[in-house]
Structures are given as structure tokens and as C-alpha cells.
Amino acid sequence: MAEPARGKPGRGKPGRKKERLQPPDYRIIDLPERHEATYFSCLEDWSEEMLEAGDHKQRWYERWRDEGLRVKLAVTDDDQAIGMIQYVPIEQSPAVGVGLYMVLCIWVHGHKEGVGKQQGHGAGTALIEAAEADAKALGATGLAAWGLRLPVWMKASWFKKHGYRRCDSHQARDLLWKPFVDDAEPPAWPEQGPIPVIDTDRVDIVAFKSGWCPASNLVYERARRAADTFGDAVSFTTIDINERPVFLECGRADQVLVDGKPLQRGAPPSAATIERKIGKRVDKHQKK
């Protein structure tokens, strides 16, 4: 077995304030059982919001771990997980393509809590390089990823710096890829189907859910609980987009729609905000 990839953070720019005086060495490993709980919370097992997001990611992992799902961690010499990457065959991703793997998430811990801020020391680069090497070894013709054009998490610009190029886009989300062979075919975002209307007599909430992202799971759980508070005034329907024919028909990644409009734009709304938004729709329906 090959020795795990290792990385050592650089010293940073002169005069720039450092988060750590002596950042730890780290190595890249496949997800071991002892770190599964940390992985299910996206390295944020200190966060109460991760508990609120439920066990959807764990159940998604158990569904796909023997079907091509790959997970790698960046861990320190004292076995603390500071970064992660997960990637799947393109046929199990929110994109369409042939012969590729796709990165669903790459994340290096960036909060003061838990293991502290670990970004800016090369762990992300080590993770993406390890994933590329692994995908090549598995026979993939390239690696795809999604990235936001906004300066937040999963930045498209970060992938571009690592040799990825845009092949499709939808709203603020780019689809990027790095081909490994000359005849590789670029991926694409699927065509979105019509917004389903389940119930016209009540507030109609439709949740498209896969379970791989705790942030999306958090919105789902908050919306589900908020809907329960309004009883029969609200219809709540979950659509499992892990079923490939279902996903291709709707063409939508994890999302909650309230009367056909997205509940979330940006960071996950608070439980109070979600309940207030649903309440406004309930009031409008009752006035009809």
C-alpha cells in the first residue's frame, strides 16, 4: 500500500498575521471508521447546527459507500481531521456526463471552534491532488467540480487556479472540470424540468433531497419542522433525488421550494426566518 500523501504548510507572506505560529503537519488518508462521525458533520462536530441537520448525511454515505463514493481526509500527526474531500462517479452527481468523477465537496476547517482555522496552509491543494490521482487510478477520464462565482465556500476561482476550466454554468454556480485524457467528454448541468405542483389548496412545500450536504439538510429539517407547526395548512413533499431517473426528470439539486419559490438564497436561513416565510404564505392562502 502506498504511503499516504503528506503536506507541510508554508510560512506565509512576510508581515502577514498568522493563525498559528507552528501549523501542524498533515497527511491525506482515506476515511477511516474512527473519523466517520466527524465526517458526517463536515468536521464541525462542535456545532449544534450539525446535530439539527439530522442523520441524512450518514444515511447517504451508507447508501453510496460501496457504489463508488470516495472520501479523503487531511489529518494532523495527532489524528485530528482538518480537511475533507468527497467525490463520486458523475452518474451519481448533480451533473451529467460520462467516465468522470465529480467533487461534491472540498472543505478545510475555517472556524475558530474545534480544531481551529486551518485554511491557507495547503491542505486543500493536497486533497484535490490526492483525489485527482485516485480518480485516474480508478480509470476516470477527468474530474469535475462545481464552484460558486461568489467569494465564499467552493469558490470557482479556487478550482481555476488548480487547472480546472468552466464547461457550464447556471445562475451563480459554475461547472468545472479537468480532463485527464484527450477524448474526455465535458460534463453539463442537467436541464431543469417544470416545478412540480403537489397541492394547490395549501401552502405547497417541495423538498428535493439527496442528503450529502449538512447545510442543505439543515434547511430541509428546519422547513419540515416549521411546516409541522402549521398543520393541515401546509403540504410537505420530499423528492429523493438519489434515484437517478427522478433526478434527471427534475434536474434539481438539494433545494426546498415554497409555492414554487426557493426557500434558501445563500447561507441556511434560521429556523425563525423559515417559519416566518412559511407563515406569510399560509396567511395569503387563507385570505384567498
Number of domain modules: 2
| Number of E-state strands | 12
The CATH topology of the largest domain comes to: Aminopeptidase
The SSE string, one letter per element, is EEHHHEEEHEHEEEHEHEEH
Give the overall average pLDDT. 90
How far the N terminus sits from the C terminus, by CA atoms, comes to 67 Å
> Which CATH-level-2 architecture of the largest domain?
3-Layer(aba) Sandwich
Please, could you describe this protein's structure?
With 288 residues, the chain is of the alpha+beta class. It has two domains: 6-179, Aminopeptidase (3-Layer(aba) Sandwich), CATH 3.40.630.30; 203-287, 3-Layer(aba) Sandwich (Glutaredoxin), CATH 3.40.30.10. Helix content is 28%, strand content 25%. The chain has helices at 36-40, 48-52, 56-64, 123-137, 156-161, 214-229, 244-250, 271-287; strands spanning 6-7, 26-30, 70-76, 81-89, 100-108, 142-148, 165-170, 173-179, 203-209, 234-240, 255-258, 261-262. An eight-stranded mixed beta sheet has the order 1-2-3-4-5-6-8-7. Helix 6 crosses helix 8 (271-287). The longest helix is centred in the last third of the chain and has 17 residues, at 271-287.
